[in-house]
Structure formats: structure tokens, C-alpha cells
Amino acid sequence: MKHNTNILTVILLLITLIVKAQETVPISKADVLNRVSKENLSIKISEQEFFQARADYRQTNAVFLPNITASHTGIATTNPLMAFGSKLNQEILTQNDFNPSLLNNPSQIENYATKIEILQPLINVDGIYQRKAAKSKMEAMSLQTQRTTDYLMFEVEKVYMQLQLAYKGVDVLVIALKTANENKKLAENSYKQGYLQRADVLSVEVRVTEIKNQLQTAKSNVENASNYLSFLMNTNRNTILKPTDSLTVSNVNLYANKNITENRSDIKAMHLALNAYEAMNKADKMAFLPRLNAFGSYELYDDKVFQGEANGYLFGAQLSWNIFEGSKRFGKAQKSKAEFDKSKLEYEQYVSQSNLELNKAKRMLTDAENKLNLTQLALEQSKESLRIRTDRFEEGLEKTSDLLAAETQYAQKQLEYYQTIFEYNYAQAYLQFLTKE
Questions:
Q1: Assuming Cys at both sites, which of 205, 308, 378, 379 could form a disulfide with 300, CB separation 3.0 to 4.6 Å?
Q2: CA 420, 426, 427: angle at the middle one, nearest 5?
């Protein structure tokens, strides 16, 4: 008895998990947009790339800020030179230390030195241009993060509409299946009364089976769109989402007459990347110039650890010029020049391609608008045709094949109409994305 109870508990648990896994959750487009902006992994990855670029830029502060190091060193030696120098640094030399026998064979001496060193760049022209390049890259990454967010908001618009369209498809096919089953009953009754042949009944049954298959595909489309939206939101992907906003024609067309400008975030980002390549090329050229650095140190000496009875300081400046480094710098400058020229061509190509996409999107919107009017008219005509043929079929005045054709056509026209609404709204959303600054 206990064994049967355990089995029943397991079965109930599995049923609960299955129901939970297929839970349907209503969600609005505003909620999806909000969750994607906060939780989407692509946005988070893009933000981390910006943080990397910002960290690279902050490293270039070394062009202006000093380099400070501190050290504490302890030694014990009988080396004549080191022993004499250690006593000299500790300021403990006496007249006896100049005795040649002591100079040549000194006793072991301990020396502990605390040293603070400062290196301050004064003139580093190539470093300044490298800093400019890093700043341009950081700003470009910031704009690229913004463009990534814009793209994902557009992707949400598209997928949410796909989910709406999938549910419309399910609704249409559910009604079509109900109508087909009713006609199947009529056909079977007419067959029993001798008004129809068996072949006519089989045709109706085939139609019912076709609609069931289409309905299953439509339900799969719902799950696919739900899973993709869940992926974009970085949430549980076993949940079936249901849009609370209906699929309707967007009558506000604000973007058909807009054009692409250089203020669009991704185009500005590419321009900043172009500036970065230019600055790097200048930095490589400036590497041929000398560098001027100031330096200084403060030192403490004693024969005990972490003591400093004697001290001294040193400061100065150094002008260094790496005159020739084989052909390495020449090759590096040539490479950065080629990268700069390449980036200019890529920028021009990207702007040209963006304008090409814009023109294509405008034509797509015009085509969708024309198609929307035609499909709406065709839907009304097919609906009326189905009504007439259904009435005639019930009176025995219409062929089964003609009724099936009218049913099929009406379902197709409904699906085409909702598909056209999707295409029209998508074209507007795409135009908005292309022209967004």
C-alpha cells in the first residue's frame, strides 16, 4: 500500500511539473521591453566591452601622472666596495676605515635601504596621441552599446509581433477546424440520406486533417516565439507567453520621410573608431621624437631593519631619443596608416550600405501598405463567398468541393491579412530603427 502511495505521489509531482513547464503567462510589450533593457545578456556583454575600453583609457593617465615606487632592501657583505659604500651611505665612516688593510679585508657589514622613487613624464607626444585613440575607442564603445540596445528593442518589436501573429494563426485555424467539423457532420448526414457520395465525405475529412496539421504548426510557432522572447529577456524558457496587446495596424507613419544621418549611434561609433585609427597613426609617427622625463628619489640607510638614521635625495631630468630601432617603427607606422585608410573605406561603405537598407525599407513599407488594402478586400470577399456557399450547401445546392475550396480560401485570406499587418508594422519598426539617432 505504501509502495502504491509513493508511485501516486511521483505521478502527481510529474503532472505538476509538466503543467508548470507549460504555464501560459500574459505579458505586454512594454513589460518585455523593460525586462530586455535590464536583463538581456547581449546588452550586458556590450556594457562590459565598454568598461574594458574605459579601463584602457584610464591606463593612459600614465602619460601625465607620476610613477611612484617604494622598496626596502637588506644586504650583508664583505665585498670591499660594497662595504665601504654602505658605511658611506649610513654616514658612519671614521678615519680608521681608510686603513688599507680594513679597506681590502672589511668585516661583514649589514645595510638596510628604504628607497622612494618618482618618475614623472614631461613630454611624451606619442603617448598623448595614444590617449586620444583610447578615448575615441571608449566613446565608440559607449555608442555601440546604445546601438545594441536599440537593435534589441527593435528585435523585441519584431518577435512580439511574431507572437501576436502566431496566436492569430491559432485563432483562425481553431475557428476553421470548428467550421470544418460542422461541415463534416452535414456531409455525413447528407451521405446517410443518399445526397452525397462517399468520396465527398472523404474530401471533408481530409480537409479536417489538414487544418489539424496547420493548427499544430501554428501552436509550435507560438512556442518558438515565446522561447525567443524569453531568451531575449533572459528568463525561464519553458513558459508560454501570451501577448496582452493585439495585432492591429499601426496607422502612425512617422519615419517614411526620414533619412539616415551621421548622428545615428552606430555611424557615430564608426566615425570615432576612424578617429582612433588616425590618432594611433599619429602616435606611431610621433614615436620618432624624443621623450623628456623627470625623476627623483629619497633614500634612507641604516644597519638595522626599518631604521633610517642616514638619508639623501636625488633628482634630475632625462631626455631620451631612440634614434633607430631597426625597421620596426617604420613598419609599425606603415601598418597603422593602412589601418587608418581601411577604416575610412569601411566607414564610407557602412554609410552607403545603411542608405541602401533605408531605401529598401521604404519600398517594403509602400509594398506592405498596398498589399494591406488588397488583402483586406480579398478577406471581405472570401468571407462573403463562404457564407453564400455554406447556405447553399445546407440546402443541398452546392458541391462539397466548392464549399471546401471556399473554406480553404477564407482561412488563407485571414492568415494572409494578419501576415500583411505584421509586414506593415514590421516595415515601420524597421524604418524607425534605421533612422533612430
A1: 308
A2: 90
With residue 67 as reference, give the H or E element that holds it.
strand 67-77
State the maximum Cα–Cα separation within the chain, in Å, rounded to a whole number.
141
Side-chain half-sphere exposure of 416, counting CA atoms within 13 A: 17
pLDDT score for 14: 47
pLDDT exceeds 60 at position 116: yes
* Three cell numbers written together for 398: 452546392
CB 121 within 8 A of CB 62: yes
- Please give the Cα distance from 117 to 75 (Å, whole number): 19
Q: Is the predicted pLDDT of residue 213 greater than 80, yes or no?
A: yes
Q: How far is CA 111 from the centre of its chain?
A: 59
CA distance 412 to 418: 10
Integer Cα distance of 275 and 135 in angstroms:
10
Cα(121)–Cα(123) distance, rounded to whole angstroms?
Answer: 6
The CA distance from 360 to 286, in Å, is: 45
Give the three cell numbers for residue 329. Answer: 617603427
325: three-class secondary structure by DSSP = strand
Is 304:113 a contact under the CB 8 Å cutoff? no
- Compute CA 393 distance to the chain's CA centroid, rounded to the nearest angstrom: 57
> Residues for the chain: how many in total?
437
φ, ψ dihedrals at 268, nearest 5°: -65, -35
For 267-286, b/e burial (b = at least 16 CB within 10 A) is bbbbbbbbbbbbbbbbbbbb
Contact (Cβ atoms closer than 8 angstroms) between residue 36 and residue 27: no
Per the CB < 8 A criterion, the answer to whether 301 and 88 are in contact is: no
Query: In the numeric block, which cell numbers belong to residue 62?
Result: 600614465
* pLDDT recorded at residue 70: 94
* pLDDT tens-digit map of 13-70: 444 444 444 678 899 999 999 999 999 999 999 999 999 999 999 999 999 999 999 9
Of 180-184, 190-194, 322-326, where does mean pLDDT reach its minimum? 322-326
Q: Which residues contact 322 (CB under 8 A, 6 or more apart)?
A: 287
Cα–Cα dist 102/306, whole Å: 27
Distance CA(315)–CA(302), nearest Å, equals 22
Calpha distance 240→254 (Å, rounded): 33
Q: From CA 329, how far away is CA 357, in angstroms rounded?
A: 41
Strand, coil or helix: what is 113?
strand
Euclidean distance between CA atoms 140 and 120, whole angstroms: 30
Q: Are strands 24-27 and 109-123 parallel, antiparallel or unpaired?
A: unpaired
